[in-house]
Amino acid sequence: MSGRARAFGAAADDYDRLRPAPAPEALGWLLPSPDVTMLDLGAGTGLLSRALAAEGVTDVVAVEPDDLMRAVLAARGPGVRALAGTAEEIPLPDRSVDAVLVASAWHWFDHERATAEVARVLRPGGVLGLLWSAADPGVGWIAELGRVGRVEAPRSAPTMTGEFTVELPAGAPFGPGESRTFRRSTWMAAEDVVAMVGTYSSVLTLPADAQAEVRRRAREHVEQQVGTDPVLVPFVTAAWRTVRE
């Protein structure tokens, strides 16, 4: 895992409190049945794991390399098996899971090695599902907030605005992929919208004074655009799935 990816641990509590969980409809599309053994790969603080539990999935294994993120996961998702590990070295036996889901983390992986490991641990017919969830960049004030907050689209992440494709390494034992986007809205305190900007790696890796300046500019923008009262924030989840051959 890159040094930039490891920056999230320093903001684990805020990340867990402020980042959006995937839309429930996206999980239903990826996993038509909850009766599966599911791997949450690059699980972070367990936002996806807990969302899966809420949808009735009872056998969830979460793999996360960052100790601070994994500690939050273990504390707030007591029914989830939390393991130290990476996408490039998954600490599970061959053909041991029915589905592998990756939420807002695929862009951090070595795709050659991670794809081989996912293929190893998935049973034939199992699902690989990739998700990215974010405040909807198709809404003007949110798009501008991303620019103010230096929130960059990660490499290999979708545009969040429509259909998209994910290219797996040549020869990977997976069928054709398909994608969908799902939208929902959540009420947030204006100050939490500002704080959410500070949970992205492009901000977390800045010096402390630069982070403070980003937060100041983000606060100014939010107050100008939506005021200081709670605001209904539109979110989008981009989801992609394929099946292990």
Automatic annotation (TrEMBL):
Tagged with keyword Methyltransferase: yes
Keyword entries, A-Z: Methyltransferase, Transferase
Domain of life per record: Bacteria
GO molecular function: rRNA (adenine-N6,N6-)-dimethyltransferase activity
Record-annotated Methyltransferase type domain positions: 39-128
Keyword Transferase (UniProt): yes
PANTHER family the record matches: METHYLTRANSF_11 DOMAIN-CONTAINING PROTEIN, METHYLTRANSFERASE TYPE 11 DOMAIN-CONTAINING PROTEIN
Protein name: Methyltransferase family protein
Natural source organism: Actinomycetospora cinnamomea
Higher taxonomy: Bacteria, Bacillati, Actinomycetota, Actinomycetes, Pseudonocardiales
